Amino acid sequence: MFSVNGCFHRFCFSCMKQHIEVKLLGGQTASCPSDGCKSEVKMECCAKFLDPKLVDVMVQRKREESISVSDKVYCPYPTCSELMVKHEVLEYTKQFFLGAEQSGARKCMKCGLFFCTQCKVQWHYKISFDDYRRSKGYQNAGDGMLKSLAQSKRWRQCIKCNNMVELVWGCYHITCRCGYEFCYTCGAEWKLKKATCSCPIWDERNIIRQSNVNPRK
Asked: Does the keyword RNA-binding apply (predicted)?
């Protein structure tokens, strides 16, 4: 039996596993399934019976919820995409870059690469923000390659913030990191947690099954 921290309501492991997976696949974090109880399900307590991928999703969701939208900044490098807090990454960058606050330069706290927090691209040395924004290099920076890759990988682009979204597993209800919700199949907006299109909500191939789970020892 699994006991929820804080309220000590008890449930079997299989029921808790299913409850948490359904919540995460729906773009939510998990709380106690007992009617009316709002106790948080701690990630460290349920990691032993969840797929490691789900644990990573829970960690990311908790971190995103703890940071206001106006304070979020993401590393623009596709191989990183680390979520950071604006004032934290600024203070971190000041150790390596003189005039970071005025220039807009930031050093990713994970991969260590520099980027422009205003352009949201890799750092453009010796070129001002305004000059770079007017340049052909900015207008075409990786557009062709990105579009080709997005098409081959069947990625979706959020119409609100233009970030690319890749569905690895789960349902087709997408909640972008900017907060915008849409259908991964057609791109139609979700309103009040409800679809505005008639596309299927999920595909059996994208749902994690018990047989695919490798429990942590």
From this structure: no
Q: Looking at 45-172, which runs of residues are DSSP E strands?
A: 72-74, 83-85, 105-107, 114-116, 121-122, 156-157, 164-165
CA distances from 168 to 172, 194, 217 (A): 10, 21, 24
- The two tokens of residue 42 are 């701690």
CB-CB contact of 124 with 139 (8 Å): no
By residue range, what is the domain housing residue 166?
147-205
Catalytic option among 108, 171, 176, 183: 171
- Return the number of other C-beta atoms located less than 10 Å from residue 158's C-beta: 19
- Which residues are CB-contacts of 103 (< 8 A; sequence separation ≥ 6)? 97, 129
Give ∠ CA 2-3-9 in degrees, rounded to 5.
120
Whole-angstrom distance, CA of residue 163 vs CA of residue 141: 14
Q: What digits encode the pLDDT tens for the residues 64-83?
A: 778 887 888 888 887 787 88
Cα–Cα dist 195/26, whole Å: 12
Same domain, 46 and 107: no
Tens of pLDDT, residue by residue over 40-66, are: 888 777 777 877 777 777 777 777 778
Task: Look at residue 215 and tell me if it is in a domain.
Answer: no
Residue 80 known to be catalytic: no
Spatial CA neighbour of 178 closest among 193, 157, 160, 164: 160
What's this model's pTM, rounded to 2 decimal places?
Answer: 0.49
